[in-house]
Amino acid sequence: MEKYFDASYIWESIPLLIPFLKMTFMVAGLSVLFGTFLGFILTAAKIGKSKFARKVANGYTTILRCTPSIVLLFLVYYGLPAIGDRVGLNLNNIHTAVFVIITFTLQFAAAMSEVMRSAFQSIDKGQFEAAVSVGLSNSQAYRRIVFPQAFVVALPNFGNSLLAVLQEGSLAYTIGLIDVVGKANLIIAGNYNAHALEIFLALAIIYWILSIAIEQFFLKLEKVFSKGKQGLKTA
Amino acid sequence: MLEIRDIHKSFGKTEILKGVDVTIDKGDVVVILGPSGSGKTTLLRCINFLEKADQGRAIFGDIDVNLKTASKKQIHQIRQKIAFVFQNNNLFNNKTALENVTEGLIIGRKIPTAEAVEIGKKALDKVGLSDKYNAYPSELSGGQQQRVGIARAVALNPDIILFDEPTSALDPELVGEVLTVMKNIAKEGTTMLVVTHEMGFAKDVANKVIFMDGGVVVEEGAPHEIFVNPKEERTQKFLKRVLPEDFTYHI
Amino acid sequence: MLEIRDIHKSFGKTEILKGVDVTIDKGDVVVILGPSGSGKTTLLRCINFLEKADQGRAIFGDIDVNLKTASKKQIHQIRQKIAFVFQNNNLFNNKTALENVTEGLIIGRKIPTAEAVEIGKKALDKVGLSDKYNAYPSELSGGQQQRVGIARAVALNPDIILFDEPTSALDPELVGEVLTVMKNIAKEGTTMLVVTHEMGFAKDVANKVIFMDGGVVVEEGAPHEIFVNPKEERTQKFLKRVLPEDFTYHI
Amino acid sequence: ADGNDSDIQKVKIAYDQASKPMSWLDEKGNATGYDVEVMKLVDELLPQYEFEYVGTTSDDLLVGVEQGKYQVGVKNAFWTQERTEKFIFPKEFIGLSSAGLVLKKENEHIKSLSDFASAGFSLAPIAANNAQYTVIDEYNKENPGNKVQLKAGDAFTVDVVQWVNEGRVDGGVIIEGPFEKQVTAEDGPYHNLADEVVYNEFAVIKTWPLFNKKEQEFADAYDQAVKQLKEEKKTSELSTSFYGRDLFEVLDAVER
Amino acid sequence: MSEGLNYKFLVDTFFIALSGVPIALFITIVALLFALPLGFLLALTRINRIPVLHRFAQVYVSFVRGTPIIIQIFIVYSSVPLLLSSLFTKFNIGMNVYDVNPIWYAFIVFTFNTTAVLIEVFRSALSTVNKGQLEAAQSVGLTNVQAYRRIIIPQALVVAMPNICTATVNLIKATSLGYAMSLQEITLKAKVAANVGYNYVEAYIDIFLVYLLLCSAVEFAFKLYEKRLSKYKPSVV
Ligand SMILES: Nc1ncnc2c1ncn2[C@@H]1O[C@H](COP(=O)(O)OP(=O)(O)OP(=O)(O)O)[C@@H](O)[C@H]1O
Ligand SMILES: Nc1ncnc2c1ncn2[C@@H]1O[C@H](COP(=O)(O)OP(=O)(O)OP(=O)(O)O)[C@@H](O)[C@H]1O
Ligand SMILES: [Mg+2]
Ligand SMILES: [Mg+2]
């Protein structure tokens, strides 16, 4: 074991890896941003009156849920330009990151639409009724009473999905986008594939710290926003 | 002041309201009694457009609306005149007691915040919650919550307040405090339409009792008429069941 | 038959039960009254070991256990003799009415299924639910649910049944049906310890009323003594508050 | 390229960014490696083209070149029949690769794939899109009676030298260059294993740049440039500097 | 792509990819088999705050959820054999660690991973079951174990079902990373087939289709089962 394992590789690689978190964050951040927006539209379709829109939104969710991210990434990365080709658009010069962001936006939106739908539906209908009964318009009632409460319910799941995107973003390396996982791969390649375990441990440490930080952040956020909500105790 | 005419409402294939008329004059306290499922809640909700009736008219001073086809504007107009106190109070969980009361004033009525806060505080004072302005619903007892719900309705200074079993979700001991608040409001001349099982309240405060069953008004009249001398067999049976045998028990 | 001696119980730093003694003889129907928070529920739960008391003894015929240090076996032994009817009935949601009743017999007592089913059906018949054997709790009305809860307790043929406000979660109309069932069971000679706010029940059925406040027994005696002539000021005040002003109202 | 008129054509050269020393993205973020450096020299000789180097994985490189995302890909690619259907192989190869087996010292006597196969040894998994996989696969097809146990796997989880030394597998296919830098070199990460594992070459193989099917013209231009570089011994210099050995010396013995 | 899709290859490879389904399912089932009870027990330790175990479960969940699964695969795949073999040498166990089929590593990784997910699923599901249910069971004379088995678990399971379904679907998808351990599953099979003629695009379409079919079938099965389990609930969505 000692022959192969050299902990110094862990500590030396961490500072090399950290700058590449920027790319990880950029991809995750934009995907979350756009994904939330698209997810919102899907949610609206799911709880709206149009049966057709609901079917489409549900179908979309099922398909995306059932597709491994790497497969989706390849379908987007090669599929979009191929489609573009047909209609005479050259999409080959678009930056790789765009395809990655599109992929994770599509995926995040599917997850988000479920998170938001269930959060929305967990808010008692009486809250809305009480709001309109004191003279608020429908949109005021949603904006001021229903959404703020649904937001708190959605927060923990939102946090989970965010962690998932951060991790899945690592697949972007397969199409040449270098984020923190990509950098780890390059370091390993730079060592001629030696000491990969140590580099991956370094990566695991970074991810772990990151996810704990995000978890804590979301707990805080939840606390701040859940004023007035009964502190639920777990059994 | 408010006249409801021939209101019909079905859920799916079952007709819940089969043509109900209600007339309420200014200052009236009308109590609606009736067995579970008779359509009392549905009636109240239709009046406030929380459910859309299938047929019926509401005449409210110079406003005369069709309950089925009312426009958004009409609905808004009517809702401005009517306040609703829910069985389980439905306080806004994300707002303090005071914010609960002022929300409708500031956002719905566009009253300046300072003024709204003053109105809100007065309303809370009236229901004995001067020390709970900043408490969230989860920090209040059931009785206190229901009192905030009443204050929220009162603060809107509506022409009429609808109460849907405002005490039935409360512990027996808390019922008293809410009933007392309601009595005080009634004494001030507020027009009220109250669904309740509290016979004491009906007797003491109401000037009219309506007994509903199976989606129609079976009998209506002054409380002593209904309680002491119900004409309809259904009313007699119901009262017998609701009033405990020992309602007359002396202490 | 059951004697509870000097029971103490604290939650955190607040002492909820400060030395309570209760004696129940065979066939007794004992009603416990008291304001909210006085420790009534806690007392019942300690007797059934749903909470562990900090101190106290339970003497049950020839069993004499320390409520704090009782062994698993002793707890099991006591629970076999005591049945509990919860305020919100706590029926097993995933079992039918009949399964709810037989669960304790078949699994807890190892009674053969056929026999248990027979006992269960009889118990359900007794509370007037012969037609609801296979209904799930969600398919039953509140009053029916509570009756299943009582049948579940009765079927165990316990030495004593503890009731914790069995009617307070019910609609006023449903209260009657449950009280009637309880009265019938009492008439059959079942020993009962009942926490309730139903004064009528206390007066008609109980042969002993205990008034608790602040974690101690303030006063106890026959119902007419307590209701008509309460000695302690606290008792008087409480009764005044709980009994509606118009408790004496004649119909 | 240093041309200055507007006819300059921009081309994208994809390279496998993680296969040092053939091609890789160095710590400073620059593309380098034998294949890349040759392409840089080619660029200098072709004023009408301007090269842009795009680092990626070999999965992406293959699909990307085929699709036209990239005009050329270099990844120490071997020639295979199937590949000629998807890519243009120019006339001139780009370099040479010594492919061999990594073995434990005690198995030094295994000199060829057939020795390896008859010994019944296990082989480290090879990524399915790696031409090494095809080479072994072809050997197996030609020698159905004496097959090497071939398993597809993923490059980045397989550290061949370590696996062999651990005993996880009996042998692995490796290119000489990486082995040199890993084990033989004084500062190699596995220099401590220098006495425990050996590298036995079983073939020197030509490596090729892969051109997109539409890039015949570009491929022809490349041919001319490379031919000149070979004549000038520039490729031999690069071979020595990246692989520690001028593989062009054994060119005559190369079969594929 | 320039020449359009190779439809023959598309069809042939579809069946090749399909032949990877059994192994993907096998791993999924084994992982679930271990992870379900393990996750449940660890969830109990968290709910009841059992001193050491509850901390352990917490750290465990945070690590597994916090790091990409491919890294976990790598760590297990490269370090477990090393640790084992040094243990074996130490205790003179004459067994070759490397004869072990990589599927065992897949079992380990995916069981670990799924357990962490299920701990959280069960924790939230159990907290939705009213405490009164346990008390009522105790009061009719059931032991704790009996109460859990007959009353609590059946109810918690219904609540947990949708999330278990999600976890299962994610698990199936994650087995596609098994290629890193040379597992002959769907993705690897399709990619090896693609390698022959470099038909990667077609292969990815096939992989997509196979997962889509497999996962929607699993989803459907779960929905059916959920319906059956929740027969006591007033309305099934
Ligand atoms: N949204 C709905 N969909 C279908 N049926 C409904 C709906 N709301 C009410 N009902 C049915 O309409 C009938 C009348 O209900 P309603 O709530 O008006 O009765 P109620 O007189 O208020 O009874 P309670 O005293 O129990 O509150 C009931 O049978 C109920 O099941
Ligand atoms: N698990 C607990 N933890 C902390 N405090 C508790 C707990 N259970 C009960 N209490 C407190 O103990 C006191 C007595 O509660 P208990 O439920 O016994 O009162 P009660 O007499 O049954 O009241 P009620 O009539 O409202 O049911 C209350 O102040 C309550 O807040
Ligand atoms: Mg109602
Ligand atoms: Mg209590």
UniProtKB/TrEMBL annotation, chain A:
Keyword Transmembrane helix on entry = yes
Q: Where are the transmembrane segments?
A: 20-45, 57-80, 92-112, 199-219
Q: Which Gene3D superfamilies match?
A: MetI-like
This protein's UniProt keywords: Amino-acid transport, Cell membrane, Membrane, Transmembrane, Transmembrane helix, Transport
Instruction: Give the domain of life.
Output: Bacteria
| CDD domains (UniProt xref) | TM_PBP2
Q: How does it sit in the membrane?
A: Multi-pass membrane protein
Q: Where in the cell is it found?
A: Cell membrane
- The residues covered by the ABC transmembrane type-1 domain are 17-218
Q: Which family does it belong to?
A: Belongs to the binding-protein-dependent transport system permease family.
PANTHER family referenced in this protein's UniProt entry, alphabetically: L-CYSTINE TRANSPORT SYSTEM PERMEASE PROTEIN TCYL (PTHR30614:SF0), MEMBRANE COMPONENT OF AMINO ACID ABC TRANSPORTER (PTHR30614)
| Protein name listed in UniProt | L-cystine transport system permease protein
Q: What is the phylogenetic placement of the source species in the record?
A: Bacteria, Bacillati, Bacillota, Bacilli, Bacillales
From TrEMBL, chains B, C:
Q: Does the keyword Nuclease apply?
A: no
Claim: Cell membrane is one of the keywords in the record: yes
CDD domains for the chain:
ABC_HisP_GlnQ
Q: What's the Enzyme Commission number for this chain? A: 3.6.3.-
| Pfam families the UniProt entry points to | ABC_tran
**Enzyme class (EC, first level):** hydrolase
Q: What GO molecular function annotations does the UniProt record carry, in alphabetical order?
A: ATP binding; hydrolase activity
Q: Where in the cell is it found?
A: Cell membrane
SUPFAM superfamilies attached to this UniProt entry: P-loop containing nucleoside triphosphate hydrolases
Membrane topology label:
Peripheral membrane protein
Print the keywords alphabetically.
ATP-binding, Cell membrane, Hydrolase, Membrane, Nucleotide-binding, Transport
**By what name is this protein known?**
L-cystine transport system ATP-binding protein
Name the species this protein comes from. Answer: Sporosarcina psychrophila
UniProtKB/TrEMBL annotation, chain E:
Say which species the protein is native to: Sporosarcina psychrophila (Bacillus psychrophilus)
Protein location? Cell membrane
| Cited CDD domains | TM_PBP2 (cd06261)
Enumerate the spans annotated as ABC transmembrane type-1 domain: 21-219
Q: Give any Pfam family that matches.
A: BPD_transp_1
Coiled-coil zones? none
Matching Gene3D superfamilies? MetI-like
Ranges that cross the membrane = 14-42, 63-83, 103-122, 151-172, 203-225
Going by the UniProt record, its keywords in alphabetical order are: Amino-acid transport, Cell membrane, Membrane, Transmembrane, Transmembrane helix, Transport
Q: Report the membrane topology from the UniProt record.
A: Multi-pass membrane protein
InterPro entries attached to this UniProt entry = AA_ABC_transptr_permease_3TM, ArtM/GltK/GlnP/TcyL/YhdX-like, MetI-like, MetI-like_sf
Q: Provide the family line.
A: Belongs to the binding-protein-dependent transport system permease family.
What's the name of the protein?
L-cystine transport system permease protein
